[in-house]
């Protein structure tokens, strides 16, 4: 948001709220040097126009002492400040609201929720957690308090606590089952890396109970089976992911090919995987299949396979691979060949591999929770 639009947005919000307030004052007193608006309102607007939001906030806070109906503009101001990144101002507004005598219980609750949210955005997690817990002591069904705790437990990777809160929110529609499944996947990963296969399997079972389509759960279960030496069981889990969520083929082709190398998987199974890979748009699984075929001595078929893909879906990464496979130039133009190869390498290395469908964040690594918008399960291979 530009420096110009920020005060104008504040002004529009305050004008809209205060128009109603001014009408109320006109009806009550029929006298005001500001044309019916409460004392101090015009000064607050002038401060916004002169780009002095700190002074404007002080004026509007003073208005609260004169009329309780000005509470709503303060909530709106605090939210705008927080969204703009000026969390200290939002904190000050909420703290001033809470300190007012005679504030209605509903307004006090909202101010406490807002203050907890401010602290969360500021990274003051202990303060945010304390307020959220106090809100839940007063009302165990307070959804905003639970959502704030959920955000804290996500940031601190306390998945047992996150699951406990999420189970309560699930019954009220405050969280999607697919998100709860992701929490169980996080817990399963912790158990798996800690060597507790039984606990990891139990967590994955819970994940699939909440979201039977969860591709991550299928991948983790496949990894568990492969590590345990149950190759055919691993292949079955990877295959389910491939059929239900083919957009994640780039994540499962490599372990599937490893499984094929450890067992006598049928040619039909392999051919099915080859076709699935060709039917999607990512280059990574195509390159993995190509390398696997070359390793089996099927160089000609591997070349036809990748060239057929690139004919329909051009890719810098695929072109780079073909350049790496090309022999040296017999006419002494190796330097040109080298420059072209380096250029393609730089261009392909700079390209992103994953993108969040929700906010557009892109990167080189798969994040099951987007680092930008914090939404679960929306980041996919490009």
List the helices and strands and how they pair.
Blueprint: H1 5-29, H2 41-49, H3 53-66, H4 71-84, H5 87-99, H6 105-122, H7 125-138, H8 143-155, H9 159-170, H10 177-193, H11 197-210, H12 215-227, H13 231-244, H14 249-262, H15 267-279, H16 284-295, H17 299-312, H18 316-325, H19 334-350, E1 354-356, E2 362-363, E3 379-381
Antiparallel strand pairs: 1-2, 1-3
Helix pairs in contact: 1-2, 1-4, 2-3, 3-4, 3-5, 4-5, 4-6, 5-6, 6-7, 6-8, 7-8, 8-9, 9-10, 10-11, 10-12, 11-12, 12-13, 13-14, 14-15, 14-16, 16-17, 18-19
Provide an overview of this structure.
Strand 1 and strand 2 form a beta hairpin. The protein is mostly helical and 382 residues long. The model is unreliable at 18-37 (pLDDT under 50). 71% of the residues lie in helices and 2% in strands. The protein has helices at residues 5-29, 41-49, 53-66, 71-84, 87-99, 105-122, 125-138, 143-155, 159-170, 177-193, 197-210, 215-227, 231-244, 249-262, 267-279, 284-295, 299-312, 316-325, 334-350; strands at 354-356, 362-363, 379-381. The protein has a three-stranded antiparallel β-sheet with strand order 2-1-3, with no helix packed on it. Among the domains are: 1-122, Serine Threonine Protein Phosphatase 5, Tetratricopeptide repeat; 352-382.
